Every structure is written in C-alpha cells, then in structure tokens.
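can u do me a favor
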C-alpha cells in the first residue's frame, strides 16, 4: 500500500516542503483551529517548515500526516494521517479538512486509509483518536471507523474524548467481509465458467426479469456471457463486482448479488437477482446484508445506494429491512427508479465498533 494512494474519491500523498501554501490554507481557517490542539502557522513559510518536518517523519517512521485532495482535479481537501500522540507512545489518527470539504465523508475515507496503512504497513498494534468532547463531527468519524470510546484523557493540558481500535479487531472485521461471503445459509463467491448454465436459467426467466435491467426482458446466452465478462472487468478495475449466490447445503446457484458503479458512477450500487425458485425464503435480505457488510467493513466505502422499480414491492421491502433510507425517484436504467441509500455511519450504528458482528 505505498503512497501516493488513490481511493474512490481521493488522492493521498506525503507532504513535502513545497506544500506550505496548502498547509497554510487548511490551518488558516478559524473553523478548523477551533478544535485543533495548537496555534496555526503564522505564514506560508512557517507552514512549509511544518510540512518539511512531516516529510522527514514519513521517512523516519513510515507514517505521518499527508496531503489529501480530490481524485478528480486534485482540489485540496485537507491533511490527514498518523502521528505520535503528545510525544507518544500512542499513535493517533489525525485529520484537518478545509471547511469547503466538510460533510462529504472525506475524513472517514482518508481515515480508513490511515488505519489500513497503520496496521498493514507500519505494523502498529493499536491506533487511537482524540477529539474535543464538543466536536461531534470528529467523534462521529472515529465511531464510523470502528473505534471504541475510552472516555476522556488529558493531552497538552486539555481534556479530550479518546477512542481506539486494535489491529486484531480491524483485521477481524475486514476478514469477515471479504469474498467469499458466508451467511447462515448462503455463500457469495466469484463466478466460474460452470455458472453460465444456471445463470441462463435465472436471467432467462421472464418473471425474474420483470423488474431487472433497462429492457426488463429475459437475457440470452450472449447477453449473460457479456454480463459475466463485465463482472470480471469490474473486479480487475475496481476490486469489486458481482458475486454468485449459492446455497451452502446444496451448492446450487440461486442468483447473483454484489456491488457495481451505478451507471457512470460515482455512486456504488448494491444489487441482487434471485431465481424464482429461491423467492420467499429470505435469501435476498440475507445476501444483500452480506454485500452491505462487505462494502463497509471490507471495502471501507462511505456510502452505498440501491435502486428498485417502484412497483417491485418485494425489493423495496428488502431495502427497508437493510435500514436503507428512501430518497425518492432517480432516473437510471432507462426508468424512474426508487432510490435508497445507506451511509457508513448508519451501518456502523447498527453493527457496532470493530470487530463486526455476525
């Protein structure tokens, strides 16, 4: 996981002495400094010296605070990363975002990168996070990342709310949410060549396809082959895609579910299609719940959406059971679809801190 690193929406790279103007732009904002632990740089030159210090820290420790920008256009988002907490021995997750970037989930997205680097690259066994007790937004970020509240502690002569996450818990949550995904009755795994024929039975059923896809009609062999090819391409390009749903007891393929970009993106959609013989058994909810956990605990997504035909009462009920919020109509797949969404914070409220609950 070498830096620079590109996530779904962000580019994260080490700071250099030449980044003084960006550092100054972040910490010159009074709204940022309201919750910070020290005084801001007095000018761009001093900010450059601080950036140079962080550059040296990255070389010495293998982690530091980094420059965070939007992936498209490289617009400055802020600073995020890791540093010794008040001289150590604890290592803290830290971030400061330029105010125009607040509210988009960027702190959580960058924080997940920092924790992954902390545990997988730097070999840390524990990372802590602190925030002023009145800084509700930062406390929320730490909770969304799976950190556990430890009460209050004193640093730099001030009281802070303290959180922590252990490497073992972080890894356990991620391991439970990496395909193949196992539920009580189902296994969700990557497709194989042997899945083509049973998939033809699923997608060739007019009743199944009544609410599926832009054309809402059965698919032939060439179309299903193209679907599998696109799924492979998604896995190669994005690291996620569609999965085959099989019964654990019988090994029988009963449908597909997974994650993909909703049309051109950037939203990532959770979807599923079940064979008619598998309807009415709760398989859709069981599979969709596993896919959502994969998205948040395994891929560290900040948000997942789902769309369904407004007339498809069964699918709307499944999305409601997942805790997804209804967002009205959305034009996609050639029709006005009912849009639902679930944020990492909403999922975390139900799942609790790391490790993930089954």
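np, heres the sequence
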């Amino acid at each position: 996981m070498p830096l620079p690193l590109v996530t779904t929406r962000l580019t994260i790279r080490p700071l250099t002495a030449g980044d003084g103007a960006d550092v100054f732009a972040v910490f010159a904002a009074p709204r940022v400094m309201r919750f910070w632990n020290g005084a801001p740089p007095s000018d761009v030159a001093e900010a450059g010296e601080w950036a140079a210090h962080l550059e040296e820290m990255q070389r010495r420790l293998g982690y530091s605070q980094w420059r965070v920008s939007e992936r498209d256009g490289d617009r400055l988002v802020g600073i995020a990363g890791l540093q010794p907490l008040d001289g150590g021995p604890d290592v803290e997750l830290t971030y400061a975002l330029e105010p125009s970037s607040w509210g988009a989930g960027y702190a959580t997205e960058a924080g997940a990168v920092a924790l992954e680097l902390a545990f997988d690259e730097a070999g840390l066994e524990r990372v802590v996070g602190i925030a002023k007790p009145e800084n509700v937004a930062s406390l929320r970020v730490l909770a969304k990342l799976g950190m556990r509240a430890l009460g209050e502690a004193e640093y730099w002569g001030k009281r802070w709310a303290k959180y922590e996450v252990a490497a073992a818990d972080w890894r356990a949550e991620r391991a439970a949410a990496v395909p193949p995904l196992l539920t009580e009755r189902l296994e969700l795994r990557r497709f194989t060549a042997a899945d083509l024929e049973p998939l033809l039975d699923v997608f060739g059923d007019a009743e199944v396809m009544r609410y599926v896809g832009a054309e809402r009609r059965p698919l032939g062999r060439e179309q299903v082959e193209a679907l599998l090819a696109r799924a492979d391409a998604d896995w190669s390009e994005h690291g996620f895609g569609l999965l085959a749903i099989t019964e654990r007891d019988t090994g029988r393929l009963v449908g597909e579910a997974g994650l993909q970009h909703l049309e051109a993106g950037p939203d990532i959609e959770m979807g599923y299609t079940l064979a008619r013989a598998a309807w009415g058994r709760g398989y859709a909810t069981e599979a969709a719940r596993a896919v959502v956990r994969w998205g948040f605990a395994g891929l560290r997504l900040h948000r997942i959406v789902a769309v369904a035909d407004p007339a498809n009462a069964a699918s709307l009920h499944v999305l409601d059971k997942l805790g997804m919020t209804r967002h009205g109509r959305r034009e996609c797949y050639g029709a006005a679809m009912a849009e639902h969404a679930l944020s990492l914070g909403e999922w975390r409220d139900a799942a609790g801190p790391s490790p993930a609950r089954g």
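The domain at 5-173 is CATH 3.40.630.30 (Aminopeptidase). hope that helps!!
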